[in-house]
Each structure stands twice: as structure tokens, then as C-alpha cells.
Batch of 2 targets.
Target 1
Amino acid sequence: MSKIKTKADKAEEIELVERLKKGQQWAFDRLVSQYQDRLLKIAYGITFDHEDSLEVIQDVFVSVFKNIHSFRQDASLYTWLRKITINHCLNWKRKWKRRFKWHHASIESENDQMLTNESKKNYDPEMLYREKQFEDNLMKAIKKLPEKLRVVFVLNSLEGLSYDQIASTLNIKKGTVSSRLHSARQQLSHVMDPVR
Amino acid sequence: MKNSCGKYSSEEISRFVDNELPTQTYDAIQQHLSTCTECSAMVKNFSSLSDIFSHHAAARVAQMEKGTIAKHLHSTLQKKEKSTFGNHFEFLGKHMVLKVASLAIILMISLFAFQNTIFPPTGPSAIVKSVDTDFASVMIIETQKKKHTIIWFNET
């Protein structure tokens, strides 16, 4: 049953790609609505910024529009989109102005807003505060991770990719994926220790 | 965070969390976890890092105003369409200009030719013989270059 569904999905994707290659707006609308959330999650995981994530994904879709003719369908459409997104995020990170902003931007205000939204769910305020504090510390620690470690951590945590898939996406060895992921977890755990 | 247990390294625990170990090692660690609080805590810790991060990122994405993405793409598509139309028009326009220009040049050359401005007539080099009578006039003329003979006759 799932195999049939997979075949149907594949056929649907092939048709979507054909329509994208013809430049049909309907197809691009479909592409955006279908993939924007997953791609935004990756972009946010790497950039840690609302506006920059949106800008990166805007550029990703424009890039898809410009380069769809070079997409050979060797891999799935989403795999291709994910690779473009990671490249855009890493290029974004290399822009020094943005990097300055990235290093100095505060997530306090965003977290305050999150706290307000979460408060509506009638949780115990003290428990909620502790959870938020834990989350804030973790996010700050993730932001401080070196880029190489963070990208691997993002692909593992947000996309649930296997070591082989991460290795193929980033053109690195599987052993490197394992060691980077382990290093990321160790650094994050060190930060989390005093809170625990 | 150190793993004081010593039986398994923290990298092995990390790979265990990701299910990236050989089945035998995976099963052995699974069994070990039931008795080792250190390793169990590490597994829980490593897993929770990813869970919290994923939840945080999903919540942030849910808050984003995503309409701008589609709008931006639409404007790019429209720009492309306009430029394609413009190119076609320009393409036709260029040809039209060429056609009109060619026609104008031909017309101008023709006009000049009629006015004997550009190509002055190659007049006779000499009147070889001229006879005028009461009834008619006859002239024998020779052209300049090819030395053709022209006989001109006119009744009076």
C-alpha cells in the first residue's frame, strides 16, 4: 500500500517538476506551500533569525525558479531543495555584516513573546519558567556552536537524517558526521549541566 | 558531560541515540541501559537536546509571516514574464527597424538615381555625325566606355 503511495507521490512529483520547468505559477505556489515550513525550519536552525530565515527561503525559491531546468531528478525534489537551502544559509553566514548581526542578535525578545503565547496554555508558571530558561540556555548554546557542528546537528535534529544522508548532503565522510554530532552534543550537554 | 560509567564512550551513546550502531552493539547498550543510570541519563540528555531544538524551531516557524515568500516569488515570475515579452517585442522591433531602414535606403538610392545625383548618366563621348533636314534630324553618337554606337532619329 505504502509502495503504491510512494509511486503515486513520485509520479506527482515528476508532474510538478515538469510544470515548474514550464514556468507555471500554479506549480510554484504548490512548491512553496508544500515545502516552505520544512525549509524554514532548517534555515531558522542555522541562522537563528526570523527575517533572515524568510529571506533565505525567498532566495531559495527564486533560485529553484532559475535553476529548475538543471534539476535531473536523480534525487527527490525535497533533497535538492534542502541542499540549496543549506548552501544559501552557509553563504548567508559568510556575509560579514550578517555575521555581525548573527553574533550580536538577542533572542530574548522572541523568547518573551513565546513565553506569553505558551502562558495561554495554563501551565504551572514556575514550571513553565524553568522550561523556558532551559530552552533559552540550550538555544544560546546552539547559537554558539561552530558552524560545522551546528549544520550537522540541525540536519540530525530537525530533519532526522541518517549519518549517510548527512554525509551525502554536506559532502563529508560518515565518520566525520558521527564525530561532529558527538562534539555538538557534548558541547551542548556541558552548557546544560549547571542548569540540571 | 562525562560518562563515568566507562563501559561505553559518549560517542557510542551518541550513535546509539541515532540508531547508527551495528545491531549487536546496539542491543548490548540497550541491555546495559537497564542497569546503568549514567548511560541512561546520557541517552535521555542527548535525545532531549534534539527534541527541544526541534520543538523550538517549529514554534518559531509557525510564528513567521510566510506570505512574503510567495509574494516575492510571484514578483520574480512576473518580472521574468515581462522581460520575456519585452525580448520578443524587441526581437520583432529590431527586425522591423531593419526592414524599414532597408526600404528607406532603397528608396533614397532610387530617388538619387532618378535625379542623376549619385549615378550621373554616362553621356556620349562624341557626336560622330549629325544630319538635320527639313523632315528629320539624325545623330550618330558613340558611348564613352564601351564605344557603342547610338543612332538618334527625330522627325521634325
Target 2
Amino acid sequence: MNLLIELAVTGALSGVKVGISALGFAIIFYATKEMHFAYGAISVAAAYLCYWVVLSVVGPVGVILALFAAFGFAVLMSVAIHKFVYLRLRSVMPVVMASLGISLLVENIVQMIGSPDTQVLVYDNLLQVVDFGFARVRVLELWIAALFLAISFGLDFFLNRTRIGQGFAATIEDPEMAELVGIRTARMRIGAYCAGAALGTLSGLSMLIDTGLRPSQGFVLLLYALIITIMGRGSFRAVAIWAVLFGLLRSVWSWQFPTEFQELAMFAVMMGYLIGRDAWDRYKRNRLTPLPASVSASSVVTGGV
Amino acid sequence: MLFKKLLISSVVALSVLGLGPSNAADGLKTGKVGVIVQLSGLAAQFGIGVQNAVSVAQEDLKQKGVIDLTVHYEDHQQQAQLGLLGFEKLVDTYDVPVVIANASPIILAVGPAAEEREKVLYNFAAVSPKIKELGPWVVTGTPLSDNDSLQLADLLYNKKGIKTVGLLNVNDANGITFADAFTKAFEALGGKVLAHETNEQTVVDLRTQLLKINATNPDALVIFSNVPENGYAVAQAREMGMKRPIFANTFIADPENFKVAGKALDGVMGVTMRFDPNRSPAANSFAEKFKAKANRDPSVSEALAYDAAMLAGEAMAKVGDDPKAIRDYMVSVKDWEGVSTTFNFDEHGILKVSLSPFVIADGKLTFPTTN
């Protein structure tokens, strides 16, 4: 039983780490319908930029400068790609191809400027281990979990309780209608890129301190974010829940079954969910609506007298 | 007159094309080798390190007046198909007599092609025991995993008195061959593998596997994962409060692991080919030049890559660019002093080398006893 609890805690925390980048990717994808595959590479590049600035400028000023540089780079780069590349292509496949190309380009530039080796920012305070008895967790992981919860609830509040958030939700739901009622959807999309890039950078920075970063890890970051965004089916709540479930189920699977099949099991569960959910939606759309009790069967057949 | 012009033109053309073993303008012999390593993708750090090591060898060969070696690189990205394509390109386009490569899937895929094309394939880092079956065109300048695992099993069971282990290996050809060879050797001695877990390449969160291993309460943890995953495994095992001894193979000593795991690596034991920069002035010089290029210390694999290029260069300088003559020269060297070790090859063309037990202390490999 102790093992199960440990696996559950470990899994949930690994899901939370994926969750921040997944929410960032989902914000961009749901608002713009653009497959921004350069997301992972830009997030990693931003974290690298932070690393280089921290090494160059020592002390707290260096850290503040590094954070500005990282977030500024990711936001500006993402918005520029959206405005000057994706919007000009105006079609799904060219956008996919362009984003893949940019992703490779960014990854290779980072590798050329830096190196393919792992880079780690060591902050001993964040790497200390807290022993809860049933599990041992890094302080950094507790911070990431708190951040994830704050982002998830904050996003939910923003979308449902603020005017701009409702405009953003309308842009996601029906962009043409939103445009007709006066919502500036183009601005909403740029806002989505800014928010998404910021969350991606946050994820990249947490990796830089937690496990270290390599230029090629942008792909892994993107892959998990993409999978969970697909599972979310347009809902940010679902993205947040699936991120935690993704880590939790993957880890708990290993309690009784071989670890090497955990990815397979997770994908089977996810595929099952997507297929089942789709079938249920189709069933709901196609089932006959019961007639009101006041309408008799004979009147329906005869057309009423 | 026309005949004279044709004769002069032919001589000029032949000298420009550089047919046959050739000499540079300064009298230095010239030669060319191909190198297929992972230069991009998820494991690019290995290939870039090798590129630095080979580039130091190029400079040293030229500086010592041995040969002016041209090196053509191809990127295999850890994929057998790309390795094979790279090999074909090196042979067809550049006509290299020797190709230096790493990684078991690549060597196993390219080996048959090397035999068919009658070119030397020099393996400096792949460890699959199946490499023995590839025939005479594959020369292996690294100990294979059966040898490595056999000596590690002996260290655990006979010298450390460890009877049960939990095993973690990367789920690729490299990790599987190490784990299989170790399990066979350890169980033959009377030991027992209580838990056997695997991790996928590039996955850095290994706590699920470690928790499962911990739950079986083995005497020790044995890790055969890639760099830097094995570093993460040790760091995470320590974070989880695992007190039992940890053993690993050669790859744990990679500088990349010290970066990701830091002091957590202290106490890790194993057997390895020993790259000691102080073993000779050449080794020291290599370590310094490598550090100047890569901004870090070289690993054993990088020292072996340097030796591969040096041996290939020397062979070409001595016997020309006939692949068979190069191969025969390489495998017949006796006590050839490399920077990594002293080179002698067995009847399969595999480096004969004794491994040294190591313990990591204060962020460095230490060798309490040597073979």
C-alpha cells in the first residue's frame, strides 16, 4: 500500500510538471487553431537564454534580468511567428510544416550557440527534499504544484468571471460570432500567444532547475503538451485534470504491471477515452427526442384532427 | 605534340584527384576517414564530444608529422537506417577506407555493409556481444558488455558479498545487452535479480522504477542506463532516501552525469576502462586539448574515439589506403599506447582490456584497487 501511495504522489507531481506546458499549448491551440509545433523549442530556447544571462550577470539582478530576457524572448518570438508566418500561410498544413521547420531551426541555433550537453541551474534551496513520511518530495516540486494549481484556478476564474476572459472564451468557442459582436479576436489570439509562451517558458525554467535542459528536450515538452491538449477537447479544466491523470495513471499502472508498458497503457486509456467520448457525443446527437406527453400517438400519425 | 599535351594533362589531373596514397605539398601523407556519430537529435551530446576528440587527433597527427587526415562526418541520430545511409555516402562519395562509428544498433546495421563493401568499420563505443559475429571488417576498440558485465557481477558477488540486486536499464540495444549479460553472470555465481525495471531513452524521471525496485528490498541497485539518465537515476534514488549501495557500468563516469547528479554520485561503484589523464604525457595533452575545445573533461568514450582516429591515421600512414591492409595493421598492433589504454586485439578484432573497479568520491572516479 505504501508503494501505491508513493507511486501516486510521484505520478501526480510529474503530471503537474507536464500540466503547465500543456495549459500553455492549449491556450494557443484552442484560441488560434494553429498547430504551433515550435512551442517546445521556443520554451527551451527561452530557458537557455535565462541560463546564459544568469551565468553572465551574477547576483539577484542577473536573475531578474534573466527572467525578463526569457519571458520577453518567448513572448516576442511566438507573437512574431504567429503574425508574420502563420497568419500569412492561412492553412493548416503549411502552418504545421512551417512550425516544424522553425522548431528545428531554433533547436539547432541553441545547440550551436551553447552545446548539446545538459545545462543545469543549481539552487540548493529548491532542491532540498521534504519528507512527508509517505513520500519524499523536492521543494521545487511543491512550488511547481502550487504554481500549477494557481494557474489552473486563475485561468478558470479569468475565463468565467472577467469580461476579457469571456471574450477570450467566445473567441475559442466561435470566432466568427465573437467578431460579429465586437470582440477583437485578432488581439485575443495575440494574447493567447503571449500567455501560452509565458507558460511554456515557466515550464522550461522549471526543467532547467529540476532536471537540467538539453536543446532537444523541446520536442518532449511539446509532445506531452500536445497529447494532453488533444485530451482536453477544448476545455482548460479537462487539460488540467488530464495532465494530473496522465502522470498519476502512468505511475500507478506500474504498481501491479510492468513499467515498460506504462506508456502503452496510458495511450490505450487515452485512445479509449477519445473513442468512447466521441461515440457518446454521436449517440446524444442522433437519439430520438421523446415527444411531449400531451401529444397523443394517434394525433401524431393522423396529423391531428 | 598532342600526345605530350595529353600526357601532361593526365599527370596534372591525377595529382589533383589525389589517386592512391598521396602526399601533401609539405611532404606529409594524406588520408581520409569517415565518422558516423549522433550529431543531432536527442543524443547529440555524445557525437559532438566525439567530434571534438577526433578533431584533437587530427591536429596531433598533423603536428607529429604522421598524416594529414581529412575527416568526413555523418549523423546517425541513433537510428540504424541513418547510420547505413551515412556509411554508403562516406564510401560512395568520399571513398573512405575506414569508418569510425559508435552505438550498437548502428554497428550491427553497418557491419554487414562494411563486409560487403570491404571497408574497415572501427567501433569505439558499441558494446553488444553480437558485434563479435560481424566478421573481420569490424574492428572493436572497446570492451563489449559481456566482458564488462561479467567483471561487474564478479565485483558484486565475490568481492562485495552482494547476493540480491534490483536492476535498472535503458530499454535499447545497449542497455538490454548489458542487463542480460549481467543477469546471466550474476545468477551463474548464485546471485538473484529481485526486480528488473527499464527506462525509455531520454526519460529523466525514473522514480516510478526506483520505487518498485526499492519495494523488493534488494542488497544493491545496479544501473545500466544511458548518459545522463543514469545520473538522474542515482540522484533520484538518493533523494528517495535509498541507502543501499549503487553500482553502474562505465557510462556513469561521464562528465554529463556529474553535472546532473553532482554529489549524489559519490559512493557509486562499478568497473570501467580507466581513462587516467596522468597515465602518460599523451593522455594529459589530449585531456587538456579536449577541455579547451569542449569546456569539460573528456569521457572514456571520447578518449577511445581519439585513439580510434590516431590508430586509423597511423595505419594509413604506414600501409596506405588499402582497407584490408589497414584492418590487418590495426588488429595486429602489440601494446600500442593509446591515451585510454594499451591496445591489443583478440582473434575477433576486439580490444583486450582489463577493467578497474572504481568508486566515485568527491565528484571524481577513484580506483581503490587496479587490475
